[in-house]
Amino acid sequence: MAPKVLHLSPVDDVVVALEPLDVGDVVETPFGGQLTTRAPIALGHKLAVRPVKCGEAVQKYGFPIGVATQDIEPGEWVHTHNLRTALTEHGSYAYRPTGSPAPVLDDGLTFMGYVRPDGQVGVRNEIWILNTVGCVNKVAERLAAMADAKWRGHGVDGVYHFAHPYGCSQLGDDLTYTQSLLAGLVRHPNAAGVLVVGLGCENNRIEAFQEWLDPASLSKVSFLELQRSADEFADGMRLLEDLVERACAFDRQPVPISRLKLGLKCGGSDGLSGVTANPLVGQVADRIVARGGTALLTEVPEMFGAETVLMDRADSPETFAKIVDLIQSWKDYYTRHGQPVYENPSPGNKAGGITTLEEKSLGAVQKGGRLSRVVDVLDYGDPAVKQGLNLVSAPGNDMVSVSALAASGAQVILFTTGRGTPFGGPVPTLKIASNHPLAESKPGWIDFDAGRIVLGESMDALAEELLHKVIRVASGEELARNETSGYREIAIFKDGVTL
Question: Which Pfam family, just one, is annotated for this protein (predicted)?
């Protein structure tokens, strides 16, 4: 008989319900005995297996996830009514490197990619239209539709536009964020060619934006300034035809898995995300890094409470210092705006069984695996240049953080979810369900069912299965659900004054 609950660490005060429990249900404790539930416990929620006094820490994943606000007895439901965060605005950290270097694998594993002139490798051969300013969104959208209808399947995988509202009336950091994110997308290897569309009078006019572009990227970029064009659609189609012609020169060829950059993201998490989907994705990330590849982890506010797990995996004191700066800069961001650093989890997270930000973070950082060292910390929009696990500065918001991962070079993104979302980024965005009911009810959204772990399937076997699915998607043999549905979006981080 399958177990009803799961104890994640010998020191934990709680277990996770693997099925809904009613009052009076009897479950096996991790200590060899039995206990009776004192309240209904939903799938993914927590059940106390040890007594905890008011004011004491509650342990899950082997770490504190908050402080009890009242005495908790074994068999009780543990959630927002009796558990609160213990996070504060500032922390003190010391570098305590743990574990051994990750194993290195050299088994010749490859995928079929497009090798670009700058040495990057794309997993799609697409044309992207990026606008410098939001007021030309509709022109760019229409151009993309015209070009896609004409050239999709004729040497290119599609022509896409990514709308955004920014680029004008922005000052300081906000304008920098817009330019940095768009420059990262121009640089992306999944785009064989890029048409940059501007208006002509915006802050982020084409001349200003060109200063952000790497010279190596300019060979695949054309520019269209609408105020200087008598017929923007005729001019745009001529430029796009030239980009398509150049894109047709690329063919897929075998490249080592070390050329893959994998983005890691979670959204709409539930109480099983840190039990199934996130550690599963972490195993895939470790497998890719072990073969010389790159994994990109973001959502910095959802590292709060679990940051020391990542700090202890820094490959050097210098990287450790960068992680400390990353965490503190995001805490300062919230306090600067008069907001608590722990204003998280979301209502959906809480409904799914996550109570505090510490609990959410300890589950979320598992997407970064357990073996891979943190080799670098990237500012928003910066490219990943070091092979290994990189931390990317971006918030937890799904659209903003996925866009940031793509701008840093992720060709494929693994997106774990317990609640479900149709969202897709500008690159293949594979949705990994944390629970089987979600995978069954939303087959049009979900690419992989990690809930099979609760049903008794091996984590290790599923990690190998997901790894090879990633390879098939990267090779163009399969499409992600967001691609087949046409769901592709970007969002740009904003913090500051708008004129």
Answer: SAF
